[in-house]
Amino acid sequence: MDFKKEFLKYYQYWPWFLLSLIVFVGAAFIFIKITPSTYETSATVLIDKKQEDQTKVITINTAEKNNEDNLEDEIRLMTSNEFLLDVVKKLNLNFSFFEKVYTVQNNRVKEVPFALIPTVSKDSLPEASYEIKIIKEGFVVTDLETEEVFNVKGYASNEVIDGLPFKIQLSAKGKKDPAKYFESEYKVSVEPTALAVKNLKLALSVTTDEKAKGVIELSHVGSSPVRSRDILSEIIVLLDQHIVLNKQKVFKNTVSYLNQRIKNFSKEKDSIESIKEKYLQNNEIAVMDNYVVEKTADRSHKIENSSLNEKQISLANFALNDIRQAGPTQTLGTGYNLDSPSVNQMLINYNAKILDSQMILERAQPNNPAYISLMTQLRVQKQELLNTLQGYLNFLNQNSKANRAEQNIADAKLKSIPTQDKVLGNINSSLSLKEETYVALLQKREEAVLNGAILESNLKTLNAPETNYSAIFPQPKAFMIGAFLFGLLLPFGIVYLRLFLDTKLHNEEDIQKVIADVPILGHIPKISRNERLNNTATSRSMIAEASRALVSNISYLLPKRIENKGNVILFTSSIQGEGKSFCAFHNAVTLSNLNKKVLLIGIDLRNPQLHDYFNIDRKEAGLSNFLANKSVDWKEFLQKDNSYSKNLDVLFAGETPPNPSQLITNSNFEALIEEAKLVYDFIILDTAPVQIVSDTLNFSYLADVTVFVVKYDFTDKSNLVQASSLIKKQQLKNVGILINGVVMKTAYGYGYGVNYGYQYKEAKEKKPWYKRGVAIKEA
């Protein structure tokens, strides 16, 4: 990259850079001077969450406690509209007072010698500004928006004035010497409460210190450090009050809750005790342990009784069978171990009867009446014994059934003991839990009462509100540097965008990117109308030197002469306005001044331009008249008398014909050229643009050299694409490109550093720099 060239691309616009710097740096300087400085006031407070937890009546203990230093609730409180509304009301932020120091800048003051008493609700105050002057008769109040003036008579007036949302009176300090304030002017800004809260919220910043737990940083940005400090102090005071009030509210709610819970638990405890009492009564339980022992002993006793009863049944059956099998005179056994005294006594009586009757039984005969009577008695007594024993056996069987029933009942009661114990255990657990909770609630209530007696805030002010008097807005150094950079970047960006979107030709590189193999013949500088004709043989003007360089470069393209004939040089362009007639004219003049016989022909029959350089009427007869009439000699239409050179003859285009293409293509024009070659050294053809009409392409083959004219900062790059196509198709032969209208000063750096060996000053009128870029119309 050629940095010098890139620099010069932008350097040519230096006046705009300078103007931009002056505008923006000047605007920044004025802005800094007229804008009140804004300062930041900050304060730091500590909220001890651990102290707050220690004073809590009810705490939640978890393995992983939530962030105990989370201050989101406090921050949300301080930035809430309700909280800031209290600050606005306490500090009367609906009114802002200024003392006029300059006409554009005011000095905010905290105290003024007058007092404003709103006549409407502060919520309904208008957003307005007023200028207040204290005069001998009273006050003069001016609405700065409507410029309406209100005169208030007296210094202690209670008069309500239509159009003013307040009454005004002198303060106690102002009443001492009102004349002291006659020269002072004050400005009052009034705003409704909602807007004051909004502005306060925008100016306030509340953040936490990540490094220090529990620390809140407060900052307020404003033009009055005193007011900012008052705002932060009031916020800290209100926050402290809110913390205490919140603790009092928590205390009251906690005590109320505890009282309600104690009452409920007392009822629940009594209810459980009643349930236990009824359960013990219904199950005939005095003490559960004694009840278990009693029921276990009862079951054992029932089992023992049943066992003894079964043993007696077995003994009774044995005795009954043994007695039935015994003989009539055989004594019965008495070792049956029957638990029946009557049976045992009857056995003894029976055996005693046999023993008493033994002699009769042994001596008497069976038919002996005494023997028969005794045997009858023995049979009767034995039968009575059997009946009694059978009755005893029946009694034992009945007892066995009863014992089994009682044993089943005892077994059932014994089996139900675990269930009863479980139910009773649950009742006892519930009762115990209720009792423990009841006692804990009583203890918590006592703690709450004690904590309420010593309730205090856990907020501490670490750093009182302090103002950093290094203004944060506007910062002069940053503003000036920013304005300087912006003053450079804005025109740079505009120029860059202009160059980026620019499709015009500006240098040889632009041409070579489209047509690489076509030589550049030279550069024709842009000159004013008065200077364009200064191309005499002895002229040292820029146009003269450029034309001589063009002639020299064209000579390298001319083919070698085989015959002693003149050369044909064709000047054309893509579109109208690129200066081909201008270049053809100067080329012809330059050649003629070199003692060459030159014929300049205007072949642009549609829009001829050459007549302007010779002050000839456009309707002057010329080429078109010759082409339309073969019998006329073309030499009759030549203009030989001109002030530029005696070697220059001109054949103008003539009257504009209705059919220029047909005239150009007839044989008359080619015959003219062939004849002119024998007379002139050079024939210069000023033709029509090739992109607009095809006239030039019809005779372009006659040219020895084709000079394709493009105009600096005028010709579009797309026009060269068509020219390149014509060159490739050989519709234009032996082509060289001439760049016309180059602004030599601004074009330097684009490849146009033209230096012809001498430093020539163009004799032209000095113009302001802002008019130098304005193109002067060229013919």
Automatic annotation (TrEMBL):
Q: Name one GO molecular function term.
A: kinase activity
Topology versus the membrane, per the UniProt entry? Multi-pass membrane protein
Highest taxon listed in the record's lineage: Bacteria
Question: Which Pfam families did the record assign?
Answer: MipZ, Wzz
So where does this one cross the membrane?
A: 12-32, 478-497
InterPro entries tied to this protein: Bact_polysacc_biosynth/exp (IPR050445), LPS_length_determ_N (IPR003856), MipZ (IPR015223), P-loop_NTPase (IPR027417), Wzc-like_C (IPR005702)
- Where the protein is mainly located, per its record? membrane
Pinpoint the Polysaccharide chain length determinant N-terminal domain residues.
16-91
* Aminoacyl-tRNA synthetase is among the record's keywords: no
- Coiled-coil stretches noted in the UniProt entry, renumbered to this chain: none
Instruction: Give the keywords, sorted.
Output: ATP-binding, Cell membrane, Kinase, Membrane, Nucleotide-binding, Transferase, Transmembrane, Transmembrane helix
Tell me the CDD domains matching this sequence: BY-kinase
Localization per record: Cell membrane
Q: Kindly give the PANTHER family that the UniProt entry links to this protein.
A: FERRIC ENTEROBACTIN TRANSPORT PROTEIN FEPE, TYROSINE-PROTEIN KINASE
Q: What is this protein called?
A: Tyrosine-protein kinase
